[in-house]
Design goal:
CATH superfamily of the largest domain: Transferase(Phosphotransferase) domain 1
Number of strands: 42
CATH class of the largest domain: Mainly Alpha
Largest sheet: 13 strands, mixed
Number of helices: 20
Helix content: 10-25%
Bound molecules: 2-acetamido-2-deoxy-beta-D-glucopyranose
Structural class: alpha+beta
Strand content: 15-25%
Length: about 900
């Protein structure tokens, strides 16, 4: 890769923010009434003999039916065109319409659409298929309007191959000055070359939507920019940190895709989302759909950390053009000015210093945009980089930055041309080609479509219901856990679900990566090799059904866990993708976070947060690690219960873990428990089913007997396994130990034998003897017993378990306090030997209690209502 051109060659022009422009220009009632009126809409399925409806319910007019009626948009110079159709369905196409029909031109031909003057979207769909005697690789297309060259000599098959896409979609915006919009299709010049097109969409758009007076930042004064006579080609349109938004969900028929693919560096920040609707402030409500503003990417919760990186997106472009970049903003967390202030860089040059979204909009949940122009000169690096960095000059409350959406358009050059050079050929398939290796520009033009469609595909294929996080960081307490499983009250979570099921009507194959990467980063295989020192065996930190887990280091020094799928492992591609889809959507203090993944070269690699203290099991027995105190064990069980509770209830559809065990509960450097390994997860029962039938998976010794018999999976199967975990924590022995006498082999049976006699204390971890209060042990034993009930119906929910464990902790701490009060020296002595936290001053105990109580009522304790806690506290015999 050539070095980045000196930034000075690139001129950053700032189109004065729409904010001021709307003040200046749109205050007049005439233009503010530029409410969306789509005067002209044509949707043509080229070559089709009849009208067709696509999977989004839109009707496409068959142009052959129109020509038959003598009222054609199509003018042929010499009548040399062919209506073609294909009966070969490609399952990777998003739809049959308009792709499976085409009009083939062997000489120049013109479509001309009667329109009213003004700006129009032109959308062109290309999917060359063989139609004897025409072969797909001879399709070479030039498309011109009267004024602009939209595409020049594009060898469609070549571009599709070079950019690894299944079809080509192009979107342009042109100003039509007369009463007709004409599209000339011209075949390439080689002997057999022909032009073709499958679908054409023409739709009027608000004239002033992307129009502005420009301010050159480096010069510091305002210059008129020749936009009125300029055509735009859409290069990228991203719903930052959000889901794909389909054409039918956008008032202007635009497609928005996720931004992950374009993020640079390991620091991805966090994906924020709210479910309440935002207001458009001074913007027109068609500027972007609500979902664009509802989701945003921001930095982390850690001020110091945020000063160490830029939140950066990188796009590849044709360097000889000028680009129009529109950034969409909406503050979702802070309602005051000077709480989040940041600099915006474009190609490493300051484009806007000290931007404060709330200062620009006047409040929280109000949308705004900033428009920039980037001029490139010959020889510039063909990349467009957007960077956000906290500006702390004004001492803002938080050092952070935010972005909700991006649109990048190419402007025609002075000759009216929009066509760049052809993309470089695709690297040989033997090389570990990474989708994050940016190719040339048209590569990305198409990829923006492919990537989005691919994401839709996998979503559909896996049948994963994407649910939105209704999580919002509170403006106070920037350090508190930011991901809350609480749905926002009053929000209809079904709206999200139904939106996705609309999406899943598209059955699309994958173009770029078969994995939707909504919140996780893509790593190339070479990056993974570097991270793990070529899978150095000394870095192995675990081995599971899936393969080995390595300790790795990111370029910024962050330690991560790299889980490499063994191609022959039982946990196959489906589980791999399930895990990515699930994990990248789930964020919770008690779930292990997925950082990214790698799919190159049929590798299946997952990169997680590194959990410094490893699996819980190692701290219970067998690894020679120091024993955990009873309080620590209770805290860990409570944490794991919260994680599972969140999986079961925090999502629109519950998620069943299916493999709850002590090796899947990991501990971070502070011994905070995090549930891991969703490889076997399946979404839980939907409303009309009470179970999910599935092959029995899971680990021996933890398996729900009911599930085993009937192969019916419910959340209560996780509850059973969690009961086994509780006993393992108490007894510090494996769930199955074949070396023991027969009646003791299965811990659950053995422990229940003693529990039923009220003598569970006989078999607890010797280390704990004398260090657990009777009451706490009793509560804990009862809880485990209920979890292990033969019938799922008799087992408690994770929420019930959570509160019983909290209560067991409370009982333990109360008794510890009581013991503090006695002056019995023997008790003191025991305390000293035992758990460090028992050896506390009275104020410490008070503090502990208070913090514990507040924790019970804090957001982190999620769904179960405060009254449930309260009733349990006032009525200790209650449960
Ligand atoms: C297709 O739709 C157009 C516009 O709605 C209509 O004029 C035309 O008659 C329809 N053609 C057929 C074959 O139904
Ligand atoms: C288009 O590109 C393909 C390679 O992808 C090549 O085989 C074909 O000859 C090209 N077509 C023309 C008309 O140049
Ligand atoms: C379109 O072109 C006409 C004629 O050149 C011009 O008056 C008008 O301002 C242009 N409108 C837009 C939205 O570019
Ligand atoms: C936008 O606002 C107009 C009224 O100004 C309203 O009729 C229209 O439904 C709104 N559109 C959306 C997508 O909210
Ligand atoms: C952020 O980006 C700007 C512009 O590229 C650069 O000058 C600065 O050093 C970057 N800061 C960090 C911490 O990477
Ligand atoms: C950019 O334009 C220059 C001449 O103006 C040309 O030599 C160069 O090949 C072009 N580069 C690209 C990437 O189109
Ligand atoms: C922060 O804002 C000030 C004032 O606009 C500006 O001079 C400075 O370059 C910005 N960036 C940093 C990193 O201070
Ligand atoms: C785009 O093309 C038109 C027509 O050739 C021209 O008038 C206009 O200046 C061009 N725009 C730019 C930014 O060069
Ligand atoms: C940005 O993308 C270009 C080409 O796609 C690549 O050469 C460059 O290394 C990327 N920059 C970063 C910082 O990733």
């Amino acid at each position: 890769m050539p070095k980045m051109a000196p930034p000075s060659i690139l001129t950053v022009v700032f189109l004065s923010s729409l904010l001021s422009c709307y003040f200046l220009c749109f205050i007049s009632p005439v233009s503010s009434a530029s409410a969306l009126v789509r005067k002209d809409i044509y949707r043509i399925s080229c070559g089709a003999a009849s009208n067709q409806t696509d999977s989004e319910g839109r009707v496409w007019i068959g142009d052959a039916s129109i020509s038959a009626s003598g009222n054609s948009y199509l003018n042929l110079n010499a009548g040399k065109d062919v209506s073609a159709s294909s009966s070969t369905q490609n399952t990777q196409l998003p739809d049959n319409t308009p792709y499976l029909n085409a009009r083939i031109f062997t000489s120049p031909a013109t479509y001309s659409f009667p329109v009213s003057p003004g700006r129009h979207w032109i959308r062109l769909y290309f999917y060359p298929f063989g139609f004897s005697p025409f072969i797909a690789s001879d399709a070479v297309v030039t498309v011109q309007t009267d004024t602009y060259a939209l595409m020049q000599n594009v060898n469609l098959s070549y571009v599709m191959d070079a950019t690894n896409v299944v079809f080509i979609f192009k979107e342009f915006s042109v100003n039509v000055t007369g009463n007709f919009l004409t599209l000339n299709f011209i075949p390439g010049s080689s002997r057999n070359a022909y032009a073709m097109v499958n679908g054409i969409e023409i739709s009027s758009m608000p004239d002033d939507m992307y129009e502005n007076t420009l301010l050159t930042v480096s010069i510091g004064n305002s210059i008129p920019y020749p936009l009125p006579g300029t055509a735009l080609e859409t290069m990228f349109r991203l719903n930052v940190a959000g889901q794909t938004i389909l054409e039918s969900a956008d008032p202007l028929g635009r497609l928005w895709s996720n931004d992950m693919e374009y993020l640079v560096g390991a620091r991805q920040g966090t994906a924020d989302s709210v479910s309440n609707s935002v207001t458009y402030g001074k913007l027109d409500n068609f500027t972007a759909p609500q979902d664009v503003y509802n989701t945003a990417r921001s930095m982390t919760n850690d001020n110091a950390l945020n000063l160490q990186f830029n939140l950066t997106w990188n796009f590849s472009v044709d360097a000889n053009f000028t680009y129009y970049v529109r950034l969409h903003f909406c503050e979702l967390e802070y309602d005051q000015m000077n709480m989040r202030v940041f600099d915006i860089y474009m190609n490493k040059q300051m484009a806007f210093p000290q931007y404060d979204v709330v200062a620009a909009t006047g409040g929280e949940f109000i949308a705004t945009v900033l428009d920039f122009a980037l001029l490139y000169s010959p020889g510039d690096e063909p990349t467009l980089e957007i960077g956000l960095y906290p500006n702390i000059t004004s001492k803002p409350s938080y050092y952070n930055a935010i972005l909700n959406g991006v649109e990048i358009f190419k402007l025609n050059d002075t000759t009216g041309n929009l066509q760049g050079p052809p993309p470089a050929p695709r690297p040989s398939p033997n090389l570990p080609a990474s989708p994050s290796t940016k190719g040339s520009s048209s590569h990305k033009i198409v990829k923006i479509v492919g990537g989005a469609a691919g994401a839709v595909a996998v979503m559909a294929a896996l049948g994963i219901i994407a649910f939105c996080f209704c999580c919002r960081r509170k403006a106070s307490g920037g350090r508190s856990p930011s991901w809350l499983p609480l749905p926002n009250p009053g929000v209809n979570s079904h709206s999200t679900v139904s939106k996705v099921s609309t999406t899943s009507r598209k059955t699309v194959g994958s173009y770029v990566s078969s994995v939707p990467s909504s919140n996780s980063r893509y790593f190339s295989f070479p990056e993974i090799l570097e991270m793990t020192n070529n899978f150095d065996d000394t870095r192995v930190i675990g081995v599971g059904g899936f393969g080995k887990v390595y300790k790795g280091t990111l370029e910024d020094g962050t330690t991560v866990a790299v889980k490499r799928g063994n191609p022959t492992s039982e946990q196959g591609v489906t589980e791999f993708q399930t895990e990515i889809v699930l994990l990248s959507k789930l964020r919770h203090r008690h779930l292990v976070s997925l950082i990214g993944f790698c799919e190159d070269d049929s590798e299946m690699i997952l990169v997680y947060d590194y959990m410094a203290n490893g699996p819980l099991r190692g701290h219970l027995y067998g690894a020679g690690l120091p024993s955990l105190s009873w309080k620590q064990r209770l805290d860990i069980c409570i944490g794991a219960a919260k994680g599972l509770h969140y999986l079961h209830t925090g999502a629109a559809h519950g998620i069943i873990h299916r493999d709850v065990k002590t090796t899947n509960i990991l501990l971070d450097e502070n011994f905070v428990a995090k549930v891991s390994d969703f490889g076997l997860s399946k979404t839980g029962p939907s409303l009309d089913h009470t179970h999910v039938s599935t092959a029995v998976k899971g680990s021996f010794g933890y398996l729900d007997p009911e599930y085993f018999r009937r192969q019916q999976l419910t959340e209560k199967s996780d509850v059973y396994s969690f009961g086994v975990v509780l006993l393992e924590v108490l007894c510090a022995r494996p769930a199955i130990n074949p070396t023991l006498p027969r009646e003791q082999v299965n811990m659950a049976e053995w422990a229940m034998h003693w529990q039923k006699k009220g003598m569970l204390d006989q078999i607890i971890d010797p280390y704990l003897v004398g260090k657990i209060s009777k009451e706490s042990l009793k509560k804990f034993g009862e809880t485990a017993e209920k979890c292990l009930a033969e019938s799922g119906l008799d087992r408690p929910t994770m929420g019930d378990i959570l509160w019983n464990l909290e209560y067991a902790l409370q009982l333990h701490e109360t008794s510890a306090e009581k013991e503090m009060d006695t002056s019995n020296p023997r008790v003191k002595e025991i305390n000293v030997k035992v758990v460090p936290e028992v050896e506390l001053s009275e104020t410490d105990v008070k503090k502990m209690e208070t913090s514990h109580n507040s924790a019970m009522f804090s957001e982190d304790s999620d769904e179960t209502s405060a009254s449930a806690v309260f009733s349990q506290l006032v009525n200790p015999q209650g449960r």
